[in-house]
Specification:
2 domains; four-stranded mixed β-sheet; 10 helices; 16 strands
């Protein structure tokens, strides 16, 4: 039995693509009383076309196909670095997968998998969040153990606001400008486009840029909840559907705000770092789902921040 999909309430999050892929591999799925019951004697390889490059659906199909009988082909899969990392992990266990990061993934089912030791890739969203924290506080910092190719779209926007990015092997140094410049437009897109998971953090940054910036959210239709909280801190933001217009101000003011979701909560913490006075972010359970000891990480960088139980 599987319950319906969870996660942050940032918009419609259908699981039809997940179910479609499993059904095409022979799984019988019935839905009743908010639960899904899945039944299958043996999975079989299939050719699956995803109408949208969903990360979760791509991963679930890959995981199911490695032990299925025959070949599975996924067309229009997600191309995120995490998909490539999953391929490398599964291949290390004896799976036969190729094509991750491209428009087609091919999986030849195997009879069994074996143990493997695997080092996961650095979290690109955590890295991007820390870089935005540096930019919003106009602080020079160096982030180590980072794969810059995974956040090129974020680095491009940081450069547009005036930051200097210096690369050296697996580390980046960011040098923010004295005056942050606005960005004409940012449109969130599946990888390698600008990640929707960095949209709230960049909104906090643009709130302090000298001029007007526009963000279009194309992935989730309800991912501007953080803007209401930012406006309580003095930000000037107008939201119309999937578009947010941000008019930069010189200074945010500390306030009591509430995290409505994971990345929106992180955005409020970043705004608090740059705001005048004290900021209290409530409902941090959301933030803790995606950041390990976020307060300690920022404190090591010099932030005056503490977690209140």
């Amino acid at each position: 039995m599987l319950c319906q999909a969870g996660g942050c309430e940032i918009g419609h999050r259908p699981i039809d693509l997940h179910l479609k892929g499993l059904k095409e591999m022979g799984v019988k799925i019935t839905e009743a009383h908010g639960f899904l019951e899945c039944e299958v004697e043996s999975l079989k390889g299939s050719e699956i076309h995803l109408d949208y490059p969903s990360v979760g659906a791509t991963e679930n199909i890959m995981l199911s196909a490695v032990l299925a009988k025959g070949k599975t082909i996924i067309r229009n899969p997600a191309k995120e670095p995490e998909i490539i990392d999953l391929q490398n992990f599964l291949n290390g266990m004896g799976a036969k997968i190729k094509g991750s990061g491209t428009g087609t993934i091919e999986i030849d089912g195997v009879d069994s998998l074996s143990n493997v030791e695997h080092r996961i890739i650095p979290d690109r969203i955590v890295a991007g969040t820390i870089l935005v924290a540096a930019a919003i506080t106009k602080s020079e910092i160096t982030v180590k153990n980072i794969i810059s190719d995974h956040i090129l779209s974020v680095l491009a926007k940081l450069k547009e606001v005036g930051c200097i990015i210096l690369e050296k092997e697996n580390e980046l140094r960011i040098i923010p400008p004295s005056v942050l410049k606005p960005v004409d437009i940012i449109r969130t897109l599946p990888y390698p486009g600008f990640p929707t998971d960095m949209q709230p953090q960049i909104v906090s940054l643009l709130s302090l840029c000298e001029g007007t910036s526009i963000i279009t959210e194309t992935v989730f239709e309800n991912r501007f909840k953080h803007t209401e909280e930012l406006m309580r801190m003095g930000a000037k933001i107008k939201v119309d559907g999937r578009v947010a217009v941000i008019k930069g101000i010189k200074q945010l003011t500390g306030a009591k705000v509430s995290a409505k979701d994971l990345r929106g909560g992180a955005a409020l913490v970043l705004a608090g770092l740059a705001a005048e006075g004290e900021t209290i972010v409530e409902n941090i359970k959301h933030i803790e789902r995606g950041y390990d000891n976020f307060d300690l990480m920022l404190r090591k960088l010099g932030a005056d921040i503490k977690r209140i139980d």
